[in-house]
Amino acid sequence: MAKATGLWLVGARGSVATTAITGLLALRANLVEPVGCVTARPELAHELFPGWTELVVGGHDIAHQPLAKRAEQLADAGVLPHRIVPAIADDLRAVSAEIRHGYHPAEAHEPAAAAIDRMAADIARFQHSHDLEQVVVVNVSSTEAPFPELPEHDDLAALDAALRDPARTVLPPSSVAAYAAVRAGCAYVEFTPSLGIRVPALRALAERSGLPYAGADGKTGETLLRTALAPMFTERALRVRSWAGTNLLGGGDGATLADAEQVRGKLASKGRGLAALLGEEVTAPLHIDNVPELGEQKTAWDHVSVEGFLGTQLTLQFTWNGYDSALAAPLILDLTRLVTAARRAGERGALGALGFFFKDPLGSTEHRLAEQARELADWIGGLHAEGAQG
C-alpha cells in the first residue's frame, strides 16, 4: 500500500487554498460529493491517484489568520456551506498548525538564498514527520507583477550567487517557492500567472532531479469558456473580428489585480491563449476591474464579433458569474492527484497533458478544451507505475 502524499500550498491561508483544504476535509468526512473534481470521473479513475484520505496538507503563507477563521469568512461570503465548517473545525486547526511562514521581499529579513533553504527544510520536515511518499507543492498565492528575466536565471551557479546578496531581489516570491520545492525534492504546480518555475535554471534543475512540474495560471472561468467556444468558430470557418472581455472582481483578487503592474501578467496569459485558439491576432481588449462589493464573486462579460458568409455579421455575448475560489479549489485537488501519479509513473519535466487545467500551459501549445481533454484522458490511460513495465 502506497504511503500518503503531501499537498503543500504556497499561499495556504488565502481564499483558494482555504476552499481547497475545506473541500478536501469535507470529502474525507463524506460530507460532500466530489462535484467539480475531474479525477473523480469514473472513466478517468486510476490506481496511481491518491485517495482523499491519503492527502496530508501543509503550506507556507505570510498571513497569520487561522484557517478556521478564514473558512468562516468564506462561508459568510457564500463560498462554503455553513454546515461544513463546524463539522471539520478540529481538522482545520490541525492543518493550520502545519502552515509555516513564507517569503516576501518586502518583509524579508534574510537573503533569498536563506529563505529557500528555510522553506525547503520546512517541506522536508513535513514530509518526514508524516512519513509521506512525496510532496506536491502548489502555488496559489497572489498574482505577482511580471518579473524581468535576468541573465543569471539561465545559469544555476550564477543564480545561487546572486540570491545570497541581501541587497538584490533576484527572484520573485513564486520562484523562491519553486526553488525551495525543487530543493526539497518535490514536484511543483504553478497555479498562478506568476513566474514560478518558469525560470530556465529551475526547470532544468527539476528535470535533472527527476521531478515533474505543471502550470501555469489555472483556467477556471472566462478563459475556460473561450477555450470551448473559440474552436467552434474556427471549425466552421467563421472569422472572429474582435473578442472583448471585461472581468469584475471583488475580494483579494480584485484588490491585487487593481495594481497596474500585477494585472499585466494575468492579461498577457489570457491574451496568448486567445490568439493561439483563433490562429491569428484579433482585436481583443480585456479589462479587469476591482469591484469590492462583489466580495468573493467574479463576473466576466464577453462580446464576440464574427464575420460570416458573404460578410454577414454574427455577435455573441455571454456572462459568467461564480465564486472563483470554488471553481479553482477542485482543480487544486485534481492537480495534486495527477502530479502524484505522474511521479509514481517516473515522469519528469513539464507535464503538457495537464494543459487542460491552465491558460498558459507549460509543455504544450494546445489550447482547445476538447483536444486538451482528449490528451489528458489518453495520458491518464497510459500511466503505469515506474518499474511495472520491463
UniProtKB/TrEMBL annotation:
Similarity comment: Belongs to the myo-inositol 1-phosphate synthase family.
Pfam families per UniProt: Inos-1-P_synth, NAD_binding_5
Single biological process term from Gene Ontology: inositol biosynthetic process
Protein name (record): Myo-inositol-1-phosphate synthase
GO molecular function, one term: inositol-3-phosphate synthase activity
Organism: Tamaricihabitans halophyticus
Domain called Myo-inositol-1-phosphate synthase GAPDH-like: residue spans: 221-325
